[in-house]
Design goal:
Layout: H1 14-40, H2 47-69, H3 74-93, H4 99-118
């Protein structure tokens, strides 16, 4: 028996499939949180925070695309994605005890960890 990653039906290993899902989940969480923050206003709607949410959603979508296409550059994109996700999580956590922000931060941290494994 080998320790090689298990390959899915489409040729992707389970670690990559997990990362694709984490990127998709984080993308969705960031877009939902962006809408929430715009509705909340105040600190939630500060430009730097909104920009991080948009950056995170965009890089998660890009990382997902690179992995789905089997791009040889997916590891480099995943490395950047992990960094952006960490920054976004920190920004969300800085908003205090807010369930929506906590949900987004958790999704960002899961995605960052998964992307670090792919990088």
């Amino acid at each position: 028996m080998t320790n090689a990653p298990q390959m899915g039906t489409n040729g992707m290993n389970s670690m990559m499939q997990d990362c694709i899902q984490a990127c998709s989940d984080c993308h969705d969480a960031c877009l939902q949180t962006l809408n929430y923050c715009l509705q909340q206003g105040g600190r939630h709607a500060e430009a730097a925070h909104l920009r991080l949410l948009m950056d995170c959603a965009a890089i998660c979508h890009t990382s997902e695309d690179f992995m789905l296409r089997g791009s040889e550059l997916h590891a480099r994109v995943c490395s950047v994605c992990a960094e952006v996700c960490e920054r976004c999580a920190e920004s969300c956590e800085g908003m205090g005890d807010d369930p929506q922000m906590r949900t987004c931060a958790d999704a960002c941290r899961r995605c960052a960890e998964s992307c670090r494994q792919m990088a």
